């Protein structure tokens, strides 16, 4: 069991009820990363399902849970031969923190009939760069859990040179050796800095709603994350992320709605 597996494990205590312990190692300056929290929910939902993989997840982020004990409650809605549908709720101090609708199925390793690869261009790994290590007092513990190499223009905001477009692109893998799986993918779809940073808007940008789809089981190796946005307006922005695996396959797609950073 890797550190990430341990940090996301869900222990069944009765039918549809799971004990979890939210790990402070996935903090982004205080709040826990949304992708990490979704991975915790998905561990419970898949355990309660007759199918093996979370193929569609929609999560509402009601509150910002703190590290420590919590529970996941899974309500089965319908189960069929090819897909099952459930509602999962993360509860802490008797208050719901996250609410998810999750569809599970069992994916097979088959070749796609069609894939649009027009958007997969990234510089070579050696031409990409890391973000500086955060200061210990920042509380940005998430950075230590993963390795990322960024397409340089998309982190120009770090030096006061944003591109003016909502975008982020990076190679991604876990810091501890681990082949990517659906739970790592849940973390990956929310691992990029908010794309609105590159549009010149900085600060904590809390996610309100995030939907993502698992399209294929990833091959071992680095993942490629391609993030973009369509509209930044009235204190809101959207963010779309594609996840490509080391074999050049599209393995996940996500879209989230978030608040523009508050400084």
TrEMBL record:
The protein's matches in Pfam families, at most eight in alphabetical order, are given as: 4HBT_3, 4HBT_3C
Residues covered by the Acyl-CoA thioesterase-like N-terminal HotDog domain: 25-105
Parts of the chain that traverse the membrane: none
Superkingdom of the source species: Bacteria
- Domain Acyl-CoA thioesterase-like C-terminal intervals: 126-260
| SUPFAM superfamilies, sorted | Thioesterase/thiol ester dehydrase-isomerase (SSF54637)
Q: What is this protein called?
A: Thioesterase family protein
**Organism the protein comes from:** Nonomuraea mangrovi
